[in-house]
Write a structure and sequence with these properties.
This protein is 30% helix and 26% strand. It is an alpha/beta fold. It has four domains: 123 residues, NAD(P)-binding Rossmann-like Domain (Rossmann fold, 3-Layer(aba) Sandwich), CATH 3.40.50.720; 85 residues, Alpha-Beta Plaits; 118 residues, NAD(P)-binding Rossmann-like Domain (Rossmann fold, 3-Layer(aba) Sandwich), CATH 3.40.50; 87 residues, Regulator of K+ conductance, C-terminal domain (Alpha-Beta Plaits, 2-Layer Sandwich), CATH 3.30.70. The chain has a six-stranded parallel beta sheet, sandwiched between helices. A six-stranded parallel beta sheet has the order 14-13-12-15-16-17, sandwiched between helices. The chain has a five-stranded antiparallel beta sheet with strand order 7-8-11-9-10. 47% of the residues are buried.
């Protein structure tokens, strides 16, 4: 597959990293020569310095025979024009654009992106995606990561194991025997900074970070088994009233459960915009690091504090201050993956990575065929792939133990005829099944080969 990625920033680089590792023909375009050089020096990609929306630049990048253009520059308008040029001049079959401005995303203007108007096949909104990821964390504050699969019937739970976890030192095989009716399965374990797909004989230890697939009806019981309680957030403080913070606050106002939400925003004009846009939420103007202002927002009684400014270090420091003042759970927005190892020592309960969230969204639309969902784990360390099994697939009609899955891949859940169950080695995968697979990044190409979906576009 030949792909042109316009924009070599964090998101563009990460997408290029994924696609080039899977032997795709990737060209990265950016008007910043340093970013292009970083991509070509560290990845197996071609690079071109220039403005992505210029026809001659796209021509030199190979647009005449490209399968896809991904427009992920920092400018919405450049991304939109790039897709228009790719369509009108070069007839590129598939165009994906990242758009930030909320005005472009209103459903009343959705006709704008029709092929006879502004031909964009997929619009990705980072702020909306990040806001949804934050709300997922709010809905399950006992976890550091969570995502839904199989039509909402299965959840991925990221759980940190504490010293009082009742199943420490227990082999995973024995856990399956002890809780035979539990529709849950441990698919990933991060220990001492390294993420692995565990074997049945592996044990769990305190301070492990585990990833568990659980049927939605069994989430509460799963959390209890691993020493957590399913809390319900009622008092929430949001530091940062920009696009992400305002979107989160708006969606919280729409939840059926009535919540007490306070927003703190340092910029006066943005604070006024937020105050006008919100109906039941109190907006405070000031510095989210100011302890007096945090107390005024009721941080000492807060179930969750969400630190959602565009500055990683401010988010982390505000989280630490809020926790010291009595906030129960702190969730921080963090762009820089090198800061993630500091989360646990600082007592920050969970984080959301805008880059990883946006990458997951774009990958979901790149991998078509029967792949229905893709979710990126950590700093692109692993992927969760949801797919439907075809009758022609190499895995159809075979038991899991007989399928040549790579060592870093595990089937975490199977859906058949509306019923979801926990798979075992003796589970036979049938035509039409929907499955969810945890795969370490180096093993993703092998998994996709088994699913036969790598270049099936429609």
């Amino acid at each position: 597959m030949k792909v042109i990625i316009c924009g070599a920033g964090q998101v563009g680089w990460q997408i290029a990293r994924h696609l080039s590792s899977e032997n795709n023909d990737v060209t990265v375009v950016d008007n910043n020569p340093d970013l292009v050089r970083r991509a070509t020096d560290t990845l197996d990609v071609q690079g071109l310095t220039g403005f992505a929306s210029h026809p001659d630049v796209l021509d030199r990048a190979g647009a005449r025979d490209a399968d896809m253009v991904i427009a992920a520059t920092f400018s919405d308008e450049v991304n939109m024009v790039t897709c228009q040029v790719a369509h009108s001049v070069f007839a590129v079959p598939r165009k994906i654009a990242r758009l930030r401005a909320q005005s472009y995303l209103q459903t009343s203007y959705s006709d704008l992106y029709r092929r006879d108007h502004l031909p964009i096949d997929v619009v990705i909104s980072p702020e909306t995606e990040v806001a949804d990821a934050v709300l997922n964390r709010v809905a399950s504050p006992a976890t550091f990561d969570t995502e839904s699969f199989l039509g909402g019937n299965v959840k991925l739970l990221g759980i940190r194991l504490d010293d009082d976890c009742p199943v420490l030192d227990t082999p995973l095989r024995q856990l399956s025997e002890l809780f035979s009716t539990l529709r849950a399965m441990v698919v990933g374990v991060r220990r001492d900074g390294t993420l692995i797909a565990p074997e049945p004989g592996d044990q769990l230890f305190a301070r492990d970070h585990i990833y568990v697939f659980a049927h939605t009806e069994d989430v509460a019981r799963t959390l209890e088994i691993f020493g957590k309680t399913r809390q319900r957030a009622e008092r929430i403080v949001i530091v940062g009233g920009g696009n992400v913070g305002l979107t989160v606050a708006k969606k919280l106002e729409q939840w059926e459960t009535r919540m007490r939400v306070r927003v703190i925003e340092a910029n006066r004009s943005r604070a006024e915009i937020a105050a006008d846009a919100l109906e039941r939420t109190i907006v405070l103007h000031g510095d989210g690091l100011d302890m007096d202002l945090l107390r005024e927002a009721g941080v000492e009684r807060a179930d969750v504090i969400l630190c959602l400014t565009d500055d990683d270090k401010s988010n982390m420091l505000a989280s630490v201050r809020a926790k010291s003042a009595g906030a129960d759970t702190a969730i921080s927005l963090v762009n820089d993956p090198t800061l993630v190892p500091l989360m646990e020592p600082l007592g920050i309960d969970a984080y959301v990575s805008p880059r990883a969230t946006t990458v997951s969204s774009i990958l979901r639309h790149i991998r078509h065929g029967r792949v229905r969902g893709v979710y990126s784990i950590g700093d692109a360390e692993a992927e969760i792939i949801e797919a439907q099994v075809l009758s022609t697939s190499p895995i159809s009609g075979r038991m899991i133990r007989d399928i040549d899955f790579p060592e870093g891949a595990l089937v975490g859940a199977v859906q058949r005829g509306g019923k979801v169950f926990r798979p075992s080695g003796g589970t036979r995968i049938e035509d039409g099944d929907a499955i969810v697979i945890f795969a370490l990044t180096p093993d993703v190409p092998a998994v996709e080969a088994l699913l036969q979906v790598s270049i099936d576009f429609f």
